[in-house]
Write a structure and sequence with these properties.
Elements (H helix, E strand, L loop, with lengths): L2 H12 L12 H15 L4 H8 L3 H8 L7 H11 L3 H13 L2 E4 L5 E4 L5 H11 L1
């Protein structure tokens, strides 16, 4: 791999520095946030979901905080435990990511702005996921 690609991968792993604006979110952050929000909305503890999904509590905590990228098998077990389908998860991730559009400012520094989600486009994506 070229040096610039390796540098980009390292930067993506570290995340933006405090003086840098945030870029597009990482998938592990979006998934972790969705899992935590769903669990909290259901009034369940991390321990309850971890036991139900047969995942260690520390590992599930790391997933929720976006520090670990879980395998599809682990994620499927956690989704089932929370009563989520893959279609619901993909729909939520689609919605969250389309809210972000990078707009270049005069200084060429990117910042996030909201963009409306087109219902027809969302339905098309959800039908592909089903």
């Amino acid at each position: 791999m070229s040096e610039s690609v390796l540098r980009s991968l390292d930067q993506a792993r570290r995340g933006p520095s405090p003086d840098e604006p945030a870029g597009e979110p990482l998938m592990r952050d979006l998934i972790g946030d969705l899992l935590r929000r769903t669990r909290v909305e259901q009034g369940r503890t991390l321990r309850e979901v971890a036991e139900d999904a047969q995942v260690s509590l520390p590992y599930l905590s790391e997933i929720e905080r976006g520090r670990k990228e879980a395998s599809s098998e682990v994620l499927a077990a956690v989704y089932r435990s929370l009563g989520l389908s893959i279609t619901e998860v993909l729909g939520e991730l689609y919605q969250r990511t389309t809210l972000f559009r990078l707009e270049r400012a005069g200084s060429h520094r990117a910042h996030l702005v909201t963009a409306p989600v087109a219902p027809a486009h969302q339905a098309r994506v959800l039908s592909l996921a089903a």
